[in-house]
Amino acid sequence: MNLKSRLKPFTAVAFTALALSTVVAGCSDLKDAQDAACCKEFEAGADMTNVDFGVDVSIKGTFSAYASAASDLSAVGTGAISDVTTACRNIALDLGADPADPKVASVTGTAALTAWCELAAGQINLKLGAKGTLATGIAANFEPPKCSASLSATANCQASCSANAKCDIKANPPKCEGGTLSVECSGGCTAEGKAELSCTGSCSGSCSGGCTAKAGATVNCQGKCDGTCSAGAGGNETGIQADGSCKGKCDGTCTLEAGAKVECEGTCDGKCDAKCSGTAEVKAKCDGKCDADYTPLKCEGGTLEGGCEVDASCQGSCNASASAKAECTPPSVSVTATVKGGLSADAQLQYQTAIASLEANLPNVLIVLQARGEAFTASIGGALKATGTLAASGKLGAKGAVCGLLIGDTIVTASENFTKALSAAGTVTAAVSLNK
Description:
Elements: H1 3-24, H2 30-35, H3 60-94, H4 102-105, H5 109-128, E1 135-142, E2 147-150, H6 151-161, E3 175-177, E4 180-185, E5 188-190, E6 197-203, E7 206-208, E8 210-212, E9 219-226, E10 229-230, E11 239-240, E12 246-250, E13 253-256, E14 262-263, E15 267-272, E16 275-277, E17 284-286, E18 289-290, E19 294-300, E20 303-305, H7 312-325, E21 327-328, E22 333-339, H8 345-391, H9 397-429, E23 433-435
């Protein structure tokens, strides 16, 4: 039994009785329901915030949050299929697969997803695996990708559920379970239980990442200077280098090279190993402990909890939307391989093309596999709980019940789509040794 068959009863049975009168009136199934104007209001992937689903006013906000969660989850499921299919197709073709291969030539949708990823994995093993024609082993090195959920978007969703929602971050401070909570701090920010903290502000110690000079001033630079690079006082601070990098002073923004740390006499945008503070013009943004008033900004790599005090149904839907809308930064991937000796010039080119393709396409696969996977599963759980609560409310009305059927089915389909994308992502990465 597939995932959709297992989950669909949870989303359909509870709504069926209320929807029956509308179904009898001419909506024999979900597609007919839309055609007969029974629930044209719901559209997967669209903004459902202010849509009127005909439910009782007392649950209008909660039902809209539920519909928004389904819409947002649907977009993630569809996007995951598209992203992984594209990545696998690129890898397969770059490594020499035949685009007319019958396994992929006439298939679409999730069948194409599975077929392209299996073909990509086959090409990786053929060219770069233990008995590969170009190399005899391959590894991908990367930092695990993380997704950041906006706390303001979550709070807005929670507040829209009910006029009685209590949004006091001091009374009910938001938490980022399993991840990092970033805040905007009016004072200074210090690291908690770690050597460094993320910082956009003034760093009292050493800064890594980026450093921007104040107007009319310069900052220490060891990397790329977006401005004018000049020699500094140190013996090796000779200014512009032959490769275009800067070692000296920069009168603009210096993007520091990997591993480099400097005393930043301007605004640090990266990591700080001491205290991160705001300036007269702007507040500090950091992920440590703030010693003054603060505003939560985002939850990175974890699950958002707390914030506004609302009912569990609304909370589950808003958490699902926040997770779905989270911004995920693709990781930088470096691929290494044990190259076979005596490769011809043509084979060398094939090898270089293969490595470049993997480094370009694996990041989007890793986002689905490692960044969104667990969070998406938790989101589906929260949305399904909201399904049961709303169905039992007795306040849906005929249109709300039919829309509930359609929305619930959308959630199940989103889960099914993402699960298939997750499986396909695992198929292609199984052919590569992942080192994080």
